[in-house]
């Protein structure tokens, strides 16, 4: 009996050891480009990040009812094409897609490198064309795109020469340089977005977009596509008596040849303990802290045009971004800010404005949430700490006021 139990335990451990880790992903963004009216075809540009440490493949489902063609896959770090094939759901499940449907097909992408450990990433771009007579139809002279979208960040680009006449989901409407109109949104709910768009021909839309410079100061920033921004900041609050918090800031550099990122410390805050990694490779990056005039002397005056002798800037250096590629950075620091993070009586007070679209705040151990001035998704981490995730799809700041109280 004992020997049978031992053999069963050994067999179970061997099976578990051969099972791949579940596939995980992040930073999904989908761009739909509607092709010729009446064709039922639209091009999909799908950006996604594989995050399972050690993974060498990524599986992307082909939606039922759609016929895929013209598939291409690229490594976003280098811009180079990746090898891929189409497999069954059974193969995808064996590769780590726990809920893969055996009757569905998947694109299996061979990654350029295994996903680095400790939060590393493998960023890919899947380019494909779908034919879907249910999602993209004509209605007289109008075109209608109706599709439930589970990905949270999306954009739909109308055919050139078409104007948007209705959208059931709140979205930015942005004109691209070639004159096409783009409808972009960030779905902050846990449900699918039941998107329905209608557009019709308009000859005045055939011209190129109006240059943002002619629209006045700040127009370019206000007309930037919010849903495609992928900066992420997570704040880990230490005990409030210290006024200190750790943070990491993820950023994608897209400009060819750029080899440094400058983080200007907000006035009133002090920085310590910086560190950084290239998330694509896992490489640890070099850094330095510059103050006052040293920022301009190092060639970074444009990043801190209003620098004073007290201004601090952390400079992170990395290999130049290759042409056609991008670099994903994670920069970590510890800040001390007694004005924006403090203890008021028995209440923890966090009072800080967020300009980026995605921010998260993790309360210290032993504290319960009592107030959040801005809507947030609240979750509990495995160690019992409370996390608040804020998504702001609008191109403005949100003033976040959080209070918390010690648990007894």
CATH architecture field of the largest domain: Sandwich
Strand order of the largest sheet: 4-7-2-1-10-13-12
Could you please say which CATH topology of the largest domain applies here? Answer: Immunoglobulin-like
- Enumerate how many helices there are, as a single number: 4
Number of strands: 28
Structural class: mainly beta
Key phrases:
408 residues; mainly beta; Immunoglobulin-like; 7-stranded mixed sheet
Verbal overview:
It is a single chain. With 408 residues, the protein is mainly β. The chain folds into two domains: 25-227, Sandwich (Immunoglobulin-like); 229-406, Immunoglobulin-like (Sandwich). It is 8% helix and 47% strand. It is built from four helices and 28 strands. A seven-stranded mixed β-sheet has the order 4-7-2-1-10-13-12, with no helix packed on it. It has a seven-stranded mixed β-sheet with strand order 18-21-16-15-24-27-26, with no helix packed on it. The longest helix has 17 residues, at 2-18. The chain starts with a helix and ends with a strand.
């Amino acid at each position: 009996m004992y020997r049978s139990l031992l053999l069963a335990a050994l067999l179970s451990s061997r099976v578990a050891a051969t099972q791949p880790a579940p596939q995980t992903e992040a930073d999904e963004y989908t761009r739909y480009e509607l092709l010729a009216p009446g064709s039922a075809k639209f091009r999909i540009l799908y950006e996604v990040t594989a995050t399972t440490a050690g993974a060498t493949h990524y599986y992307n489902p082909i939606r039922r009812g759609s016929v895929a063609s013209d598939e291409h896959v690229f490594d976003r770090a280098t811009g180079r094409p990746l090898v891929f094939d189409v497999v069954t759901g059974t193969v995808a499940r064996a590769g780590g897609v726990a809920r893969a449907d055996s009757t569905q097909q998947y694109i299996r992408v061979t990654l350029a490198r295994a996903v680095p450990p400790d939060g590393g990433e493998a960023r890919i771009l899947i380019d494909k064309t779908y034919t879907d007579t249910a999602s993209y139809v004509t209605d007289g002279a109008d075109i209608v795109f109706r599709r439930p979208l589970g990905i949270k960040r999306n954009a739909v680009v109308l055919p050139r020469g078409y104007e948007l006449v209705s959208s059931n989901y709140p979205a930015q409407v942005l004109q691209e340089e070639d004159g096409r109109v783009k409808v972009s949104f960030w779905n902050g709910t846990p449900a699918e977005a039941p998107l329905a768009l209608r557009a019709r021909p308009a000859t005045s839309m055939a011209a190129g977009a109006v240059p943002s410079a002619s629209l006045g100061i700040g127009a370019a920033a206000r007309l930037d596509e919010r849903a495609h921004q992928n900066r992420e900041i997570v704040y880990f609050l230490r005990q409030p008596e210290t006024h200190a918090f750790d943070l990491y800031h993820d950023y994608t550099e897209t400009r060819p040849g750029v080899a440094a990122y400058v983080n200007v410390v907000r006035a009133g805050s002090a920085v310590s303990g910086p560190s950084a990694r290239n998330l694509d490779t896992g490489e640890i990056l070099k850094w330095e802290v510059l103050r006052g005039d040293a920022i301009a002397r190092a060639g970074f005056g444009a990043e801190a045009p209003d620098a004073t002798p007290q201004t601090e800037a952390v400079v992170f250096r990395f290999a130049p971004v290759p042409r056609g590629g991008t670099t994903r950075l994670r920069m970590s620091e510890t800040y001390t800010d007694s004005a924006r993070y403090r203890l008021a009586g028995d209440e923890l007070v966090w009072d800080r404005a967020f300009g980026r679209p995605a921010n998260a705040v993790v309360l210290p151990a032993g504290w319960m949430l009592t107030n959040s001035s801005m809507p947030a998704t609240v979750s509990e981490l495995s160690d019992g700490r409370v996390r608040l995730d804020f998504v702001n799809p609008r191109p403005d700041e949100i003033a976040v006021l959080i209070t918390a109280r010690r648990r007894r």
